[in-house]
Write a structure and sequence with these properties.
The complex is a heterodimer of chains A (83) and B (354). Chain A has 83 residues and is mainly α. Helix content of chain A is 53%, strand content 0%. Chain A has a domain of 49 residues. Helix content of chain B is 51%, strand content 8%. Classes of the chains: A mainly alpha (83), B alpha/beta (354). At the A-B interface, α1, α2 and α3 of A face α1, α5, α6, α7 and α8 of B.
């Protein structure tokens, strides 16, 4: 991925290239690197999975109404739905 | 609460139903299509309409006209990518007194399927109601998504959500670690422009925009399936990081007219007139330079790593760095690995310190 170098962009450019390099790592290599740094790969992976799940669940309930209305009167059932 | 299904499932055998845990990704088509759907709808016109919608989205569709048939088909052919159930379906077809009363077996069928496979994506179509809050259902069924409006976009959005959830479940530990580290490096590269955000904010935002992408192409980021889910999220993070950076720059930039003040004599005066030196950009540049120097200090025990970091910071490609510092492939790879490890160790130490 090409980067446009700018005077104040050195750090960002390096970090972006390092970010891209992570995507090409093998499964063993990334687990080894994280293990060597003192972190627990499984714990880190689980934390990331939890983040994704929580975000997805948050999206699902954004418009949901938890109120239950057992006596609600249904509208007439549509037979010719609009498209 | 566990749904026994005895009241809707006359086909249930005396033996307890045993089902193996679905393997991921569980997309095994009923035919040869890549995506499969089970549609349980007793209204013929709605059935035709919904089947066409699902076909248009690339699903091979099995249809059932009542809950009994739906459950039987589910047991025979599951898993499906999605099960779409009408709220108003009958227990079984035919004539009889139970077929005359309004039949709302959709939720019960949905819960029965959920009991068989909690990861099965299910949607209930409740076109007869005006809002999700009006649809009567037990608390344990509140998580099941509803479509209220019979237009295609709402269905499409829910189908996309189910597919994204499947993709999340299918991510391996290595995929998750790649995403985490990608996000960490991207946020670190933003420096002050991150404005206090961390890797979780970046990855969370990327997923949020992806979920949004099904219904809002302007603000969301649609996953077009030509790339893997990891690649898509990485691309989304890259784009969001660029937006954050731009917003930071815009926020920290002012028009001279906005800053102009008038002195007591009524003469226009620039606030910079009294400032001896410096600007936000200069400060930012100074901070970045000192951070860059700090990185090089961190890597000083490895000349190769220092060289490669300098090359990366200069925007050089891999081959240019190798050529400039006379590195072979192995030394380059080792140097990059060392840089990543140093930064990660520093990051971990920082987290422990906090």
């Amino acid at each position: 991925m090409p980067y446009n170098k700018r005077d104040d962009d050195h750090l960002e450019t390096a970090m972006n290239q390092l970010a891209d390099s992570v995507l090409g790592l093998s499964d063993d290599a990334i687990a080894d690197e994280i293990g060597e740094s003192g972190a627990d790969p499984e714990e880190d992976a689980e934390r990331t999975r939890l983040l994704l799940r929580t975000t997805s669940q948050g999206w699902a309930v954004r418009d949901a109404c938890v109120e239950k209305l057992p006596n609600a009167i249904p509208r007439r059932k549509v037979s010719a739905p609009k498209r | 609460m566990r749904y026994s299904l005895s009241f809707i499932d006359s086909t249930q055998s005396s033996q307890p139903y045993e089902r193996t845990e679905p393997s991921l990704p569980p997309t095994i088509s009923i035919n040869t299509a890549t995506k499969s759907a089970l549609l349980v709808e007793s209204d013929e016109s709605l059935s035709i309409f919904l089947k066409r919608c699902l076909n248009d989205e690339g699903y091979a569709v099995r249809t059932a006209s009542n809950s009994e048939e739906g459950l039987r088909l589910y047991r025979d052919c599951a898993p499906f990518n999605v099960v779409l159930i009408d709220y108003f379906i009958s227990h079984r077809s035919g004539v009889g007194i139970d077929c005359l009363a309004p039949q709302t077996k959709g939720v019960e069928l949905a819960m029965a399927i959920h009991d068989l496979d909690a990861s099965q994506g299910v949607i209930i179509a409740a076109f007869a109601y005006r809002s999700p809050g009006e649809v009567p259902r037990p608390p344990e069924a509140m998580h099941i998504p509803l479509i209220i409006d019979s237009n295609v976009s709402q269905l499409r959005s829910l189908l996309e959500k189910i597919e994204i959830d499947r993709a999340i479940r299918a991510l391996t530990s290595s995929d998750l670690l790649r995403l985490q580290r990608f996000a960490k490096f991207r946020v670190r590269g933003l420096g002050r422009a991150a404005s206090g955000r961390d890797w979780e904010d970046l990855l969370g935002e990327a997923l949020y925009r992806t979920l949004m992408g099904a219904e809002d192409t302007q603000n969301g980021r649609h996953w077009n399936r030509k790339v893997t889910f990891v690649q898509h999220l990485a691309g989304a993070m890259q784009s969001i990081a660029n937006v954050w950076k731009r917003q930071f720059k815009e926020k920290n930039t002012y028009l001279i007219s906005e800053l102009s003040v008038h002195n007591p004599e009524g003469r226009e005066q620039s606030p910079f007139d009294d400032v001896p030196s410096g600007s936000a950009t200069a400060d930012d540049r100074l901070i970045r330079k000192s951070e860059e120097d700090r990185m090089l200090t961190l890597l000083q025990d490895s000349p190769d790593a220092s060289h490669v970091f300098r090359g990366l910071a200069d925007g050089l490609s891999k081959s240019e760095i190798m050529s400039r510092y006379r590195l072979d492939e192995k030394r380059y790879t080792t140097a990059v690995r060392r840089i990543r490890a140093k930064l990660l160790a520093e990051d971990n130490a920082g987290n422990r310190g906090r």
